[in-house]
Design brief:
This protein is α/β, with parallel strands linked by helices. Helices cover 31% and strands 16% of the residues. The protein has one domain: TIM Barrel (Alpha-Beta Barrel). The chain starts with 7 loop residues before the first strand and ends in a 28-residue tail after the last helix.
Length: 358
């Protein structure tokens, strides 16, 4: 475990340890997508992380996929996030904003326009959305046109610039978990017949274009990317993940990004293949076996020791343990997370977990 407490250079940031707080949706933003004041306390409590990655934050109104989630596409949203990053920095922390477009994982009820969500192809997820008034089916998305592709790429770029204006140290482009960029990668969600569909080199094209555009806008050293090979969340089913992800890593090698962040889903062979193609920093949320959920410091440390990963991404452990690095140093004890308070609500299960000294 000792290696987890050694420093790591990530882009131009010097991390004091290799323990990363993973992105976790908490559903506490208001209807305008603005973070609550309490979020500054929540994130700053966890500033001892080597790096904090924010909850998924939509790049546009049409990029929204869930109620009570934040954005980075209005001035008010930027100002609200600024209070969070100021608090994290005052506590000595570092923070990236995770940028997402949910694509087909959306619903007309989420948008003032009432329009259909968009996706690479007109294929519904088969999943359902909680609206606050009950569950509704995800509709069939509208297949994106060339104009939609150009506009959406621009929205990622603008949101990245807004993130830097909001005080974030960088951004993580979300190309995982069944959201829009992931939908382009997968052969069960992308049935396009143009330059963005079909063979692997076409399906990775839009993802690469978005990442390169964001990197050009804010600097590649301020950009990370999240991937989740083989995940089945949000109706995903990738038949050729073992070919897609090494190809994507290889295509990104010419852009000196801050990191790749891999959410492993019992796909250690793909993780090793990505590592073989990617010469930069690799963050890993390690799940090497079916029994390894949720990820633990031990599974992460083993991956770092083996050289598969450079840093460990943990998620649930950070919810209940704001002082997680110190608890790992001491071998525990650990607070148990209350799953009933994961989404929505007030300070309970958000900012009231005690530290070791409390």
């Amino acid at each position: 475990m000792d290696k987890l407490f050694t420093g790591l250079t990530l882009g131009k940031l010097d991390l004091p340890n290799r323990l990363v707080m993973g992105p976790m949706t908490r559903s506490r933003a208001n209807d305008a997508g603005e973070m609550p004041a309490l979020a500054a306390e929540y994130y700053s409590q966890r500033a001892s992380a080597g790096l904090i990655i924010s909850e998924a934050t939509q790049v546009s109104a049409l990029g929204k996929g869930y109620i009570s989630t934040p954005g980075l596409h209005t001035g008010e949203q930027v100002a609200a996030w600024r209070t969070v990053t100021d608090a994290v920095h005052a506590a000595g922390g570092r923070m990236f904003a995770q940028l997402v477009h949910c694509g087909r994982i959306g619903h007309p009820s989420l948008y003032e326009s009432g329009e259909a969500p968009i996706g690479p192809s007109a294929i519904a997820s088969g999943e359902r959305l909680f609206t606050g008034a009950g569950m509704v089916d995800h509709p069939v998305p509208r297949e994106m046109t060339p104009a939609d592709l150009e506009r959406t790429l621009g929205e990622f770029v603008e949101a990245a610039r807004n993130a830097i204006d909001a005080g974030f140290d960088g951004v993580e482009v979300h190309a995982a978990n069944g959201f829009l960029l992931h939908q382009f990668l997968s052969d069960n969600t992308n049935r396009r017949t143009d330059a963005y569909g079909g063979p692997v080199e076409n399906r990775i094209r839009f993802v690469v274009e978005v990442i390169e555009a964001v990197a050009a806008a804010v600097g590649p050293e301020k950009v990370g990317v999240r991937l989740s090979p083989g995940i089945t969340f949000n109706g995903m089913a990738e038949s050729d993940a073992a070919a897609v992800y090494p190809a994507l890593a290889r295509a990104l090698r010419s852009t000196p990004l801050a990191y790749l962040h891999v959410l492993e889903m019992v796909t250690r062979d793909i993780t090793r293949a990505i590592r073989g193609e990617w010469r930069g920093t690799l963050l890993l949320c390690a799940h090497p076996t079916p029994e390894s959920f949720p990820s633990t410091p031990e599974t992460g440390a083993a991956a770092v020791e083996e050289g598969i990963a450079d840093a460990v991404v943990l998620a649930t452990a950070w919810l209940a343990n704001p002082d997680l690095p110190e608890r790992i140093r001491q071998g525990g004890p650990y607070n148990e997370a209350d799953s009933t308070t994961f989404y929505g609500g007030d300070h309970r299960g958000y900012t009231d977990y005690p530290t070791l000294g409390a």
